[in-house]
């Protein structure tokens, strides 16, 4: 299926890109799962994933994209061919915080490897961090001049 949503990593006010920092820290295998799921699941189905195992609404426009499948499983489930697998197989339990906006844009705010630290306290800390990033984004949107035209 063709992508309907465009994933865009969010740049924080301090110039960092939290999602990219998260993705760069993953093993090759987990990165392949992340990349495959964003391209073949999130970009294709977007907000329609809500109330499935893939997406949970957290309120205020924040959503948690949940990954728990290997790149090969995702490719089989969504008919996306063979993923570019590198490295040994690992258990995948990743979380990516996203916000849907505009004409089919999905903002990739941040993420973390829940499998590496599954404690509830860490989960709540990561959600709070994602909410702060979303507030930065919304504040920035409010500062933009209105579009002129039609």
Offer a concise description of the structure.
The protein is α+β, with helices and mostly antiparallel strands.
Order of secondary-structure elements:
EHHEEHEEH
Mean pLDDT: 90
Shape: globular
Count up the helices. Answer: 4
Major sheet: size, sense and barrel closure?
A: 5 strands, mixed
Which class of secondary structure composition applies to the elements? Answer: alpha+beta
Strands in their spatial order, largest beta sheet: 1-5-4-3-2
According to DSSP, the number of beta strands is 5
The percent range for strand residues is 15-25%
Residue share in helix: 25-40%
CA(first)-CA(last) distance: 33 Å
Radius of gyration, taken over Cα atoms and rounded to an integer in Å: 16 Å
Report the uncertain regions: none
What does this structure look like?
It is a single chain. This protein has 150 residues and is of the alpha+beta class. It contains four helices and five strands; from the N terminus they run E-H-H-E-E-H-E-E-H. The chain has helices spanning 18-24, 28-45, 71-78, 120-143; strands at residues 6-9, 55-59, 62-67, 94-101, 105-113. It has a five-stranded mixed β-sheet with strand order 1-5-4-3-2. Helix 2 packs parallel to helix 3 (71-78). The protein starts with 5 loop residues before the first strand and ends in a 7-residue tail after the last helix. The model has no long low-confidence stretch (mean pLDDT 90).
């Amino acid at each position: 299926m063709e992508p309907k949503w465009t994933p865009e990593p969010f740049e924080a006010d301090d110039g960092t890109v939290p999602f990219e920092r998260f993705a760069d820290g993953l093993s090759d295998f987990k990165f392949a799962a992340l990349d495959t799921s964003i391209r073949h699941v999130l970009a294709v189905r977007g907000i329609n994933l809500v109330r499935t195992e893939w997406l949970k609404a957290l309120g205020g426009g924040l959503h948690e994209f949940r990954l728990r499948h290997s790149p090969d499983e995702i490719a089989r489930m969504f008919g996306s061919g063979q993923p570019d697998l590198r490295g040994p197989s690992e258990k995948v339990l990743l979380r990516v915080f996203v916000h849907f906006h505009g004409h089919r844009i999905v903002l990739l705010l941040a993420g973390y490897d829940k499998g590496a630290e599954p404690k509830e306290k860490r989960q709540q800390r990561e959600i709070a961090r994602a909410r702060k990033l979303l507030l930065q984004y919304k504040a920035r949107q409010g500062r933009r001049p209105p579009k002129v035209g039609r």
